[in-house]
Amino acid sequence: MSDRTPVFIITGEQGQCKTTFLHLVLGFTVGLNVRVRGVISPGYVRDGRRSGFALIDLATGEVEELSSIDPDPRCEIHGRFYFRPEGLAFGRRALAPPDPRETDLVVIDEVGRFELQGEVWAEQIDRLLAHPHPPMIWTVRRRLLNTVIERWKIANPVVVDVGTASVMATAGDVMDAVWEWREAQTASGAPDFPLPGGRIAGDPPLLADAAAGASPNAPVILRRCYGPEE
């Protein structure tokens, strides 16, 4: 199944709102009871320049500071950023290989030059891809796109360019992949996971459900539901 399970790669230039696009896509999925694991990493800006990143565990909604440009002797230095040990440990726990029977979607924001150098989330990505895994969404800078695909031998990449792609269409494609994953898990003997409106795995996704209201159990960071115009 892993060879056919897609990895959606949201790509664009630096500062082109890849994380925002990802957040919008995830906003559609939470109302459909999608069980998401992984991390999203919104950035900070100071004096018009990127100054650091937070890290959000999508399974729990917990937040930890990941990195900053402010020097700190306790931190790992990658590029011009100081990565806090607490943030790295937090992210590595969030990116541990999930139980495929209990996870529909894995998110990594982002996969970049540090990972290509074997740092930050590289080991976690290797472990995730070594196991049967659900659909994934990664964010990757455009100039690194082909290198990332080749480095991890992604057999089924779905490239989503934020400059031209539709949030709604991308969310629909992600949900199609989630439904296929759930069908495969059901066929392997895993119990059906209940969906809104009495549907079970195999029924077509209805993104309108997300617009009607997200699951109250969703992490607070994703409880807002987005319309395609936002």
UniProtKB/TrEMBL annotation:
Pfam family, one: NTPase_1
Protein keywords: ATP-binding, Hydrolase, Nucleotide-binding
InterPro entries: Nuc-triphosphatase_THEP1, P-loop_NTPase
Entry-linked SUPFAM superfamilies: P-loop containing nucleoside triphosphate hydrolases
Molecular-function GO terms, alphabetical: ATP binding; hydrolase activity
Domain of life (superkingdom): Archaea
Signal peptide: none
Name assigned to this protein: Nucleoside-triphosphatase
